[in-house]
Amino acid sequence: MGTEKQTEKETMNDLARHGYSLKKHLLKEWIYAHGHTQPYVARRIGVSAEEFKRKLRARERFTRDQIERLVYLMGAEAALRIIFFPSYRDRQRVWKEVFGDKAKGGDRD
Question: Which helix (H) or strand (E) holds 54?
């Protein structure tokens, strides 16, 4: 059990250190459903529109600061749905840390 906990911590530390990928389709749905544009979101998270589009297209990672700004823009619940987690278990754990036992975190999309 100790090894499993250590592996989870290493995974999350690695994510925080190297950045996070985003689910492009879900992010674009959110952007347009809320009347925003990709250049607007790019400005709000501190990158150029070109960099934002490239990162989405190439599945490049966004920095921790960029993700934090995105969370403030979207709200935590919406943002957690578009952040790519390496495993369903990681996603559930983060959801539970943020929202407690709220059931929606278990969704698989």
Answer: helix 49-58
What is the per-residue burial (b if ≥16 Cβ within 10 Å, else e) of 67-104? bebbbebbeeebbbbbbebeeeeebebbbeeeeeeeee
Angle between the 88-99 and 2-18 helix axes, to the nearest 10 degrees?
80
Could you tell me if residue 108 is inside a domain?
Answer: no
In a domain, 27, yes or no: yes
For the entire predicted model, the pTM comes to 0.73
Residue 35 has pLDDT above 50, yes or no: yes
Question: In the structure, what pLDDT confidence band is assigned to residue 33 with cuts at 50, 70 and 90?
Answer: very high
How many Å apart are CA 7 and CA 10, to the nearest integer? 5
Instruction: Report the Cα–Cα distance between both ends of the chain, in Å, rounded.
Output: 28
pLDDT of amino acid 71: 92
- 95 found inside a domain: yes
Q: What residues form DSSP beta bridges with 62?
A: 20
Q: Is residue 7 part of a domain?
A: yes
